[in-house]
């Protein structure tokens, strides 16, 4: 059985330990409700960043509209959950939210992904703005006031489960043949086509997968924070997600996870100074691009580091 | 019909402001292939400079316009030197991310110092109305259009008739070849930023007067729309930016006038996406394709 | 019918006709050369064959054991699927990826698992991935690059990068291999190596090869038949000795180059 390799067992143990430790800290009150919010933010941001990384870091398609997909997941889940006030409702909401986001991703992706670089960035930004304006004007979404009193079934278990599942699934995708096809588009689109890769198809695929998980993140957001309005999901939010991806390293899942944690901690400390927080964010972007454009991790993953460790021990 | 003409008048005055901002985008893009996200914020700073010199120094419209343009020109050069020049050989994505960073930086540093609240602009121009039949033209609108047109004529003169204008055209056609021909590329790029930012500064003062209110985030939406205008006209083309600006201004007032003003911004972006898909090079732009 | 037959193929860009009314065929198993002065339209012709450009008029037909397929106007990836693989004049490897990944990407069109298997790691995923690794290892073995499979493509020496491009093209399992100036920038030693490689892959993979080349001595030595393009028109074709003796060819192109080449040799 391939599945029970040493590596996979190690991963499983690490996952269980992380879950249990945090759960114990929450139950004993060491992590109070204030820090619990930070943990929720970290989980949601990890899903957002890893999914945007798939689109921007791995496939090389610069998207400035990730918050748009997040908002679709958030609204669909909230509306369903408001109708079906139960954990089943939440589960249906998350799945429907994610699927709706992916479908919109495909619809948006097919025409816009023909564009490249800066133009694609602007087009995705425009798409996200259009989505926002639509939510702003719809009755079922309650316009600018947003939806309030969404049932809050999401807890650490839900957050942890969906975050881990998102990371694992996206990681599996990246390390599959389809994932390599996506990466080849980032490397050289013309060569990729010459190697038999339908670049449009794989760009849209990456975009849809990215949108799907952004939808999951949005759904969890609406459930955990029980209040959403269109302006939460503006350009600013897309930039927030981009900052995480860039800081962690475009093309590194590990980097996105680390950066999401770092920035959430930073934000918690700067909570009462929102302008300073944005100045720090802005400076981070500029300084990273000037001095370390590859971000914290570059395209390295945590598994590469272990491999490296093995190799050097062999040399000894 | 009268309502239509009235909307056209409003659209043209709004559009000429967009055109002023769009020119900066198009010139910078033409020369270093960068969507200068911070451009909309330069325009915001221009509005604040105008506000400061008129409120605290009691200067009139023209001195305020000139001072604001000069300050923005300096700001443009500084931003280019510090943030963009070191990245001249980096990937496009890196420079674009830096531009987003600079944009946020300008917005929130400004917010830190002047606060997030909306301020009302001093009344610099008479708002006497001229009635042509049932169409009302505000004197402010006349000033806005006239100022924009004069600035655009000066710009056309600089680009087409002066030595520095020739350098600008040369650098935007081929930076390396221009360098070999002895053109000082860095100086030319700085000059381009200076001119583009000065125009944005002028736009800021005009918008302050027109809407009578300014705030640190006022540059975001008009900045994006001016970019849409530049793309529509054909990015890199100066006449294209003017036509694009006017078209977007008119389109916006028509959507608000006849449709739902809530959908105004969405309409502009939908329009952008349609252009990008149908004719990505815009009205007057050149088409380029990668060689295999 | 020949394996590949090109009929009355024309491509114009605005007013400029880059390839004009070209007729050409390639038989199964042949090694055909395409030569011509700079700007004669050789690469444009390659780009037409591989789907980068859409022909203005004319047809490109591929006959695989009786099933005939029109290639003109197909997207590049569909041309590759149909059985034409290429290399590029200026190397276009996936520079920041490993040698192994470069090859595996080219194998993508032949994998046999779908998206759910990729996400959820069904058994099929592992089976297919293993098969890919084995096949890639085999290819690397033939070219003596096995010890470099973990290296980034950009870190290989120039000659090996050219080789890797050929391996990558082979990994798509083509019927015809198109090589765009494979010896460009190589020293005589590397060129000799390349010649051996081409001979070897023809034998091992039962492959038809067509190449564009500037190195006259190479073309004359290894090609069985040669086509000559000048100003977008096919001005001559035949076995090397015929082409060498053709007056129009000498006038258009060889006149200066052949004497140059022979001068260099002597």
TrEMBL record, chain A:
<dbReference type="InterPro" id="IPR043428">
    <property type="entry name" value="LivM-like"/>
</dbReference>
<feature type="transmembrane region" description="Helical">
    <location>
        <begin position="37"/>
        <end position="55"/>
    </location>
</feature>
<protein>
    <submittedName>
        <fullName>Branched-chain amino acid transport system permease protein</fullName>
    </submittedName>
</protein>
<feature type="transmembrane region" description="Helical">
    <location>
        <begin position="67"/>
        <end position="84"/>
    </location>
</feature>
<feature type="transmembrane region" description="Helical">
    <location>
        <begin position="239"/>
        <end position="266"/>
    </location>
</feature>
<dbReference type="Pfam" id="PF02653">
    <property type="entry name" value="BPD_transp_2"/>
</dbReference>
<feature type="transmembrane region" description="Helical">
    <location>
        <begin position="156"/>
        <end position="174"/>
    </location>
</feature>
<feature type="transmembrane region" description="Helical">
    <location>
        <begin position="9"/>
        <end position="31"/>
    </location>
</feature>
<keyword id="KW-0472">Membrane</keyword>
<feature type="transmembrane region" description="Helical">
    <location>
        <begin position="90"/>
        <end position="110"/>
    </location>
</feature>
<dbReference type="InterPro" id="IPR001851">
    <property type="entry name" value="ABC_transp_permease"/>
</dbReference>
<keyword id="KW-1133">Transmembrane helix</keyword>
<feature type="transmembrane region" description="Helical">
    <location>
        <begin position="117"/>
        <end position="136"/>
    </location>
</feature>
<keyword id="KW-0812">Transmembrane</keyword>
<feature type="transmembrane region" description="Helical">
    <location>
        <begin position="278"/>
        <end position="297"/>
    </location>
</feature>
From TrEMBL, chain B:
<dbReference type="InterPro" id="IPR001851">
    <property type="entry name" value="ABC_transp_permease"/>
</dbReference>
<keyword id="KW-0472">Membrane</keyword>
<keyword id="KW-1003">Cell membrane</keyword>
<feature type="transmembrane region" description="Helical">
    <location>
        <begin position="93"/>
        <end position="115"/>
    </location>
</feature>
<keyword id="KW-1133">Transmembrane helix</keyword>
<dbReference type="Pfam" id="PF02653">
    <property type="entry name" value="BPD_transp_2"/>
</dbReference>
<dbReference type="InterPro" id="IPR052157">
    <property type="entry name" value="BCAA_transport_permease"/>
</dbReference>
<feature type="transmembrane region" description="Helical">
    <location>
        <begin position="135"/>
        <end position="159"/>
    </location>
</feature>
<protein>
    <submittedName>
        <fullName>Branched-chain amino acid transport system permease protein</fullName>
    </submittedName>
</protein>
<feature type="transmembrane region" description="Helical">
    <location>
        <begin position="12"/>
        <end position="35"/>
    </location>
</feature>
<keyword id="KW-0029">Amino-acid transport</keyword>
<keyword id="KW-0813">Transport</keyword>
<comment type="similarity">
    <text>Belongs to the binding-protein-dependent transport system permease family. LivHM subfamily.</text>
</comment>
<feature type="transmembrane region" description="Helical">
    <location>
        <begin position="65"/>
        <end position="84"/>
    </location>
</feature>
<keyword id="KW-0997">Cell inner membrane</keyword>
From TrEMBL, chain C:
<keyword id="KW-0067">ATP-binding</keyword>
<dbReference type="Pfam" id="PF12399">
    <property type="entry name" value="BCA_ABC_TP_C"/>
</dbReference>
<dbReference type="InterPro" id="IPR003439">
    <property type="entry name" value="ABC_transporter-like_ATP-bd"/>
</dbReference>
<dbReference type="InterPro" id="IPR003593">
    <property type="entry name" value="AAA+_ATPase"/>
</dbReference>
<dbReference type="Pfam" id="PF00005">
    <property type="entry name" value="ABC_tran"/>
</dbReference>
<protein>
    <submittedName>
        <fullName>Branched-chain amino acid transport system ATP-binding protein</fullName>
    </submittedName>
</protein>
<keyword id="KW-0813">Transport</keyword>
<dbReference type="GO" id="GO:0005524">
    <property type="term" value="F:ATP binding"/>
</dbReference>
<feature type="domain" description="ABC transporter">
    <location>
        <begin position="4"/>
        <end position="256"/>
    </location>
</feature>
<keyword id="KW-0547">Nucleotide-binding</keyword>
<dbReference type="InterPro" id="IPR032823">
    <property type="entry name" value="BCA_ABC_TP_C"/>
</dbReference>
<dbReference type="InterPro" id="IPR051120">
    <property type="entry name" value="ABC_AA/LPS_Transport"/>
</dbReference>
<dbReference type="InterPro" id="IPR027417">
    <property type="entry name" value="P-loop_NTPase"/>
</dbReference>
């Amino acid at each position: 059985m391939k599945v029970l390799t040493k590596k996979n067992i190690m991963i499983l143990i690490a996952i269980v330990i992380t879950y249990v430790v945090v759960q114990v800290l929450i139950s004993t009150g060491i992590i109070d409700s204030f820090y619990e919010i930070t943990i929720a933010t970290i989980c949601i941001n990890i899903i957002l960043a890893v999914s945007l990384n798939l689109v921007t870091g791995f496939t090389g398609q610069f998207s400035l509209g990730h918050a748009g997909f997040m908002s679709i997941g958030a609204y669909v889940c909230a509306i369903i959950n408001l109708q079906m006030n139960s954990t089943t409702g939440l589960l249906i909401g998350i799945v429907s939210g994610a699927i709706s986001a992916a479908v919109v991703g495909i619809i948006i992706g097919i025409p816009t992904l023909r564009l490249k670089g800066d133009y694609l960035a602007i087009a995705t930004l425009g798409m996200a703005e259009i989505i926002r304006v639509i939510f702003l004007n719809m009755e079922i979404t309650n316009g600018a006031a947003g939806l309030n009193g969404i049932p809050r079934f999401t807890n650490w278990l839900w957050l942890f489960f969906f975050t881990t599942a998102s990371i694992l699934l996206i990681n599996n995708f990246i390390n599959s043949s389809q994932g390599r096809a996506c990466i080849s588009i980032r490397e050289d689109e013309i060569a990729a086509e010459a190697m038999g890769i339908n670049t449009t198809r794989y760009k849209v695929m990456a975009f849809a997968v990215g949108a799907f998980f952004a939808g999951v993140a949005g759904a969890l957001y609406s459930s955990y924070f029980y209040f959403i309005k269109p302006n939460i999901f503006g350009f600013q939010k897309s930039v927030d997600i981009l900052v995480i991806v860039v800081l962690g390293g475009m093309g590194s899942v590990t980097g996105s996870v680390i950066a999401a944690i770092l920035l959430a901690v930073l934000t918690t400390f700067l909570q009462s100074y929102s302008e300073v927080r944005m100045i720090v964010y802005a400076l981070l972007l500029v300084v990273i691009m000037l001095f370390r454009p590859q971000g914290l991790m570059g395209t390295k993953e945590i598994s590469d580091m272990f491999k490296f460790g093995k190799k050097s021990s062999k040399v000894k | 019909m009268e309502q239509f003409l009235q909307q056209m008048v409003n659209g043209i005055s709004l559009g000429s402001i967009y055109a002023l901002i769009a020119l900066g985008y198009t010139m910078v893009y033409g020369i270093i292939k960068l969507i200068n996200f911070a451009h909309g914020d330069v325009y915001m700073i221009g509005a604040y400079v105008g506000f400061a010199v008129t409120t605290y120094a009691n200067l009139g419209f023209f001195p305020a316009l000139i001072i604001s343009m000069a300050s923005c020109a300096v700001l443009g050069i500084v931003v280019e030197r510090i943030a963009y020049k070191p990245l001249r050989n980096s990937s496009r994505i890196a420079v674009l991310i830096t531009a987003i960073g600079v944009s946020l930086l300008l917005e929130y540093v400004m917010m830190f110092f002047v606060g997030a609240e909306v301020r009302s602009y001093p009344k610099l121009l008479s708002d006497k109305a001229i009635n042509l039949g049932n169409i009302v033209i505000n004197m402010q609108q006349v000033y806005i259009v006239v100022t924009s047109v004069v600035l655009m004529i000066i710009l056309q003169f600089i680009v087409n008739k002066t030595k520095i204008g020739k350098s600008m055209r040369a650098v935007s056609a081929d930076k390396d070849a221009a360098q070999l021909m002895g053109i000082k590329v860095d100086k030319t790029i700085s000059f381009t930023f200076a001119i583009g930012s000065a125009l944005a500064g002028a736009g800021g003062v005009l918008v302050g007067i027109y809407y009578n209110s300014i705030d640190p985030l006022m540059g975001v939406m008009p900045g994006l729309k001016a970019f849409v205008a530049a793309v529509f006209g054909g990015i890199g083309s100066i006449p294209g930016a003017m036509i694009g600006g006017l078209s977007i201004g008119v389109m916006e007032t028509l959507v608000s006038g006849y449709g739902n003003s809530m959908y105004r911004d969405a309409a502009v972006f939908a329009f952008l996406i349609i252009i990008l898909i149908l004719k990505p090079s815009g009205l007057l732009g050149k088409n380029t394709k990668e060689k295999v | 019918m020949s394996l590949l037959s090109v009929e009355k193929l024309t491509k114009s860009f605005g007013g400029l006709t880059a390839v004009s009314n070209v007729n050409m065929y390639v038989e199964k198993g042949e090694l055909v050369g395409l030569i011509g002065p700079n700007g004669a339209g050789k690469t444009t012709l390659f780009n037409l064959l591989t789907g980068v450009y859409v022909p203005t008029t004319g047809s490109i037909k591929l006959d695989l054991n009786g099933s005939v397929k029109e290639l003109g106007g197909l997207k590049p990836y569909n041309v590759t699927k149909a059985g034409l693989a290429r290399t590029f004049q200026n190397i276009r490897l996936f520079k920041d990826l490993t040698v192994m990944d470069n090859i595996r990407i080219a194998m993508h069109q032949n994998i046999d698992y779908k998206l759910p298997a990729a996400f959820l790691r069904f058994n099929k995923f592992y089976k297919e991935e293993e098969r890919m690794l084995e096949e890639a290892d085999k290819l690397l073995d033939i070219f003596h690059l096995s010890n470099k499979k973990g290296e980034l493509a950009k870190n290989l020496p120039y000659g090996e990068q050219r080789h890797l491009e050929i391996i990558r093209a082979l990994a798509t399992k083509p019927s015809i291999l198109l090589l765009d100036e494979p010896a460009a920038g190589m020293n005589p030693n590397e060129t000799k190596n390349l010649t051996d490689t081409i001979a070897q892959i023809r034998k091992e993979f039962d492959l038809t090869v067509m190449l564009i080349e500037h190195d006259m001595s190479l073309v004359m030595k290894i090609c069985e038949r040669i086509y000559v393009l000048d100003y977008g028109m096919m001005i001559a074709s035949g076995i090397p000795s015929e082409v060498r003796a053709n007056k129009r060819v000498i006038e258009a192109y060889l006149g200066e180059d052949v004497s140059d080449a022979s001068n260099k040799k002597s």
